[in-house]
Amino acid sequence: MFTRKEFLQRSALATAGFSLLEFMQPLEAAAFKEQLNRVSLLEPGAASEDEDFWNFIREQYTVSPNIINLNNGGVSPQPKPVQDAHIRFYQYCNEAPSYYMWRILDQGREPLRAKLAELAGCSVEEIAINRNTTEGLNTIIFGLNLKAGDEVVLSKYDYPNMMNAWKQREKRDGIKLNWVDFDLPVESDDVFVRKFSEAITDKTKIVHITHMLNWTGQLLPARKIADLAHKRGCEVIVDASHSFAHIDYKLSDLDCDYYATSLHKWLCAPFGTGFMYIKKEKIKNVWALLSAPVPDADNIGKFESIGTRSFAAEMAIGNAIDFQYLVGNKRKEDRLRFLKNYWCNKALKIPKFKLNTSLKDNYSCAIANFGIEGWKPEEVDTKLFEMKKIHCTTVNHEKIHGVRITPHVYTSLRDLDRLVEGIAEIAAMEPPAKK
What we know:
The protein is α/β, with parallel strands linked by helices. The chain is 42% helix and 14% strand. It is built from 15 helices and 13 strands. It has helices spanning 4-13, 26-40, 51-58, 80-95, 97-104, 109-120, 133-143, 160-173, 189-199, 222-231, 251-254, 311-327, 329-347, 377-388, 413-427, and strands spanning 68-69, 127-130, 151-155, 176-180, 204-210, 235-239, 258-262, 274-278, 353-355, 368-372, 390-391, 393-397, 400-405. The protein has a seven-stranded mixed β-sheet, with helices on both faces. The longest helix is centred in the last third of the chain and has 19 residues, at 329-347.
């Protein structure tokens, strides 16, 4: 057994590898290793349908046995090893907060930054640890040196917090917003590239790309759009709230200038954790959103002067990264896509069912959006919970009106069969509007 100080330092300073196993019970760790060894021998892609492995992963979560949570796109639960680490860090901090937080746990910030940078595929000098995508992207949006008449290209299907931030800059600073519209789902890279190309002018300074749309799960060809923007002399911002730790890629694959994501979604880190990335040579051009000794410095640390924060939640990010590595980036992506395809292909046989998401691998993964003819999304959402205790969420944005379904790695096929049963039963009913 470790002393409190030894445990905290060991946990906070663990930089890579499968350190999560070191803090599991011996039998639990042995079982995890056995499952990993077995699944690693399977053919590529075959692990996505290995129910023994995914049932074992499900056991690492403490999800309700009475409610089927299919709104993991909003915020995901943490596996038990991450919860345990968070709780232990929190309890120790409460014994002597200023000592354990500032003298012990804060020593883990740089190792954690290195761990995040390795997972993301960037330099430790380019990544700032913060609380969520909104904080990261608002820091960038409000920190950029834009003047009246400068133009920004963004889409009508970006996340509301980002659209509102740009609208505030438009109102305050007189920049011009050029909006891109889509008819979703889109199953052509050329369509996206053409749409963005048509919106870029010689005054465009920034192209804002949402890598995966939260409304329908539509995946955009971010690298192709970024290449186009760079050729036209623009900088590129990527909103990766839904793509990081969901699909398998590195930041270098996108070649964006600015990027942010939330870690409490697909990485299953503690609530209120995230990170922001800025290319090293671009850092000096972005003003710190909150006070910093040198707000226009070229050091990524200027963005972390946020005052007292949750050290316990922050340090437990490392445990979530370990869990991600144990599951496997590609293995996880394959499983999430398999789950989406599993229920969607069954539901497509139901009369009145309409799918608002592509089933092609390049354009979606876990998230899907559907509607039932004659039913409002809110009515379907209510019925699913009343009848099957399925928790999901609704979308009424621009031309998309439907119910969003977001499984995660702990979601079972039985859960999705129950979803399909519920959709079929609702589709067979008379819509409320006709009663």
